Amino acid sequence: MAKVLKLLVLLAAVGGLLTAGSYAGARFTAGKVTGNKPPLSNRTIVFLGWRPPKFEGVPDLPGRPRAWVIRYGRTSLPGIAHATIYVSPTGKLIATVPRDLEARIAAWERAQEPGP
């Protein structure tokens, strides 16, 4: 019985480390998209992929992949009320909403730079 309990504790610890690593990868990838001082705020992060008793994935994306969904409720970007970044459990960027989010953030950062 003690061996079974040790195995369960070990499996829980490994699962926790894998989840933490996946979360960190998603945060890092989203940070690469948004930059140092993003014009985005009110962030929420949710993993869509496993809801007992089945694997569901992200219903908004084709193929319903499992992904970390990082939503920003407020933006300073013109014409955008909110933004969403989808990142795979391995840390790869799947999609952004709007699709040109990186370009819009880059343009916003250029506009914020002081002129000569």
Summarize the topology.
Blueprint: H1 2-34, E1 40-48, E2 50-51, E3 54-55, E4 67-75, E5 83-87, E6 93-97, H2 101-112
Antiparallel strand pairs: 1-4, 2-3, 4-5, 5-6
Helix and strand composition category: alpha+beta
Strand content: 25-35%
Q: Describe the biggest sheet?
A: 4 strands, antiparallel
Provide the domain count.
1
The first-to-last residue Cα distance is: 73 Å
Oligomer state equals single chain
Mean pLDDT: 91
Number of DSSP E strands:
6
Structure report:
The chain has two helices and six strands; from the N terminus they run H-E-E-E-E-E-E-H. The protein is 39% helix and 28% strand. The chain has a four-stranded antiparallel beta sheet, covered by helices on one side. Strands 2-3 form a two-stranded antiparallel sheet. By secondary structure, the chain is of the alpha+beta class. The mean pLDDT is 91. A hairpin with a 5-residue loop joins strand 5 and strand 6. It has one domain (2-112).
In short:
The chain is built from 2 helices and 6 strands.
Keywords:
116 residues; alpha+beta; four-stranded antiparallel sheet; two-stranded antiparallel sheet; 2 helices
